[in-house]
Amino acid sequence: MRARAHAFLAASLDGFIARPDGGLDWLLQRHAQAPAGEDFGYAEFFSRMDALVMGRGSFEAVQGFDPWPYGDKPVWVCSRRPLQLLPGKPLQQTAEPLAALLERLGGQGVRQVYLDGGQLVHSALREGLLDSLTLTVIPVLLGQGRTLWGALPGDVGLQLEAATPYPDCGFVQLRYRVNAERNEAVAGDP
């Protein structure tokens, strides 16, 4: 049985997850307006995950963070090009297709995987591998940037599980089960 894949993302109201150059300044500025200590459910979400799979771009964005934001949780970085992994961190690089990686991890007892990175999450959507999507909508219109919602081979069904407004900063968080019909038969919700 494959590991279940979950995404936790933020996007502008017009659907962008980053500026055209990958910049996240708009998100950091808006997050600074949130009440002190508010993490929008991220810590609770992350505590339910057994492992993290991220794309190369996400890894390059976080590799300089101090402290390392993922603790001792195992992290797989998807990239075909060689990476300089961080010594002393539970990091592995893989070039295998996402479906094969999730199957392998599931065979090793990993049940819940956090997917991080727009291209990786879009790939999971395209391949029917994403089980849940938590999207925090940030009240800003960027007008252009990198979108998560690229071309898909067909409709992707979503079932709303929760909608949480954060009136102090204007954020709205939406939590969906992806391909709800397919996922009903899969056990082990996070």
The number of distinct β-strands equals 10
Mean pLDDT: 90
- The Cα radius of gyration reads 16 Å
- Measured between the Cα atoms of the first and last residue, the distance is 15 Å
Provide the structure class: alpha/beta
Helix content: 10-25%
Count of alpha and pi helical runs: 6
Order of helices and strands: EEHHEHEEHEHEEEEH
How much of the residues is beta strand, in percent? 25-35%
Task: Output the strand order for the largest sheet.
Answer: 5-4-3-6-1-7-10-9
Low-pLDDT residue spans:
183-188
User: Major sheet, described briefly?
Assistant: 8 strands, mixed
What is the 3D shape? globular
Q: Which helices and strands appear, and what pairs or packs with what?
A:
Elements: E1 4-12, E2 16-18, H1 25-31, H2 42-47, E3 51-55, H3 56-62, E4 75-78, E5 91-94, H4 98-107, E6 112-116, H5 118-127, E7 130-138, E8 146-147, E9 158-166, E10 171-178, H6 180-183
Parallel strand pairs: 1-6, 1-7, 3-4, 3-6, 4-5
Antiparallel strand pairs: 2-8, 7-10, 9-10
